[in-house]
Amino acid sequence: MFNIYIKFLFVLFVSFISLANTTVYAKGNNSLVDVRIWPSTESTRTTIETTKEIKFTHEKVGKKINVKFNENLNIEKYIINLNNAVSNSDYIKKIEYSNKNKTLIYELRKDIEITIFNIEPIHKYKHRLVIDIKNNSTKKKIVKEKKKPYFIVGIDAGHGGEDPGAIGEMGTYEKDITLAMAKKLKEKIDKIDGFKGVLIRDGDYFISLYDRVEKAHKLKANILISIHADSAEYKYAEGSSVYILSESGASSASNKWLADKENLSDLIGGAKIPKKESYLKKILMDMVLTSNIKKSKKLAEKILVGIKENDNIEMHKNNIEDAGFVVLKSPKVPSVLIETAFISNKKEEKKLKDKKFQEQIVKAIVDGIKKYKEKEVDL
Length: 379
Hints:
By secondary structure, the protein is an alpha/beta fold. The protein contains eleven helices and 14 strands. It has helices spanning 2-27, 79-85, 136-144, 174-190, 209-218, 253-263, 265-269, 276-283, 286-308, 346-353, 355-376; strands at residues 32-39, 43-50, 56-61, 64-69, 92-98, 103-108, 112-119, 127-135, 151-157, 195-199, 223-228, 241-245, 321-323, 335-339.
């Protein structure tokens, strides 16, 4: 009887300690999970991930931006990595952290724009504070660029930065595969007389879906090709597919699932989502969009033929598919999304990493683009 009583007291004691620890954790200080940085020539994003939302203020003083936190986040251990990442930046000189003042300091080389906002937990991420620094001089160069007598192919490598896209069984990131293919596509396009490829994303950083469309416009793209290598609800899915924007609903339940998954990219990557109504009122005029979808369909038909003509590329779907992909919602640039293969299928993941397969996909896309230009376009 005495032993039973002792065991009861022990269990009660352990339960009390566990409860106390849980309470302390809930009321404790904010904990730093990670600090990541994604630099590019156009902008640099710093992401500070924590267990709770960060309270902050910021000010611009001369050539410095001070981001002051309400608590000390002990960011100093990340400073070396942050500075290594921006060592070649022409608009950020260095980054410092003051424990005493609880302030992250960006020392600048030139005029910039800054946007700071919090993101609620989603997917694998906890609370995130995003600090976006945009290089104004690059922005001006893009706007002032003179129109050249080229047929300009906008090439969009899906995902990037905080958003890895789908991840294969062997740990392959979709964002890395799409960027490798995008660069190969640009290289081949640039070798064709009268053609020029422009990359929407040329490194490992995040661009929102709406900004991808906007960048295609600013770069004067005649067409936009968005490259993906996604996952499916069942792991044995295989082959390539070609998509255009749907005028109404998706052409199948699986297409809707895929579009919804791709469109979630903005939340995972950390976009400051614009109000859809004001954006749509501004650019998505029904008549113009419907006309552009027809052009997109002609482009998709030519690319689909190019892929089918290559015996080494399997088709997942033999017809053009449609769904509500945000990245295809340009009112004036014919746009096509290509699912090159399924990274969720281990066999296909191996193919996606193979340079020969990448070359075959790229060649098929180029053949389709050339046919579209020859038969459908008058510059």
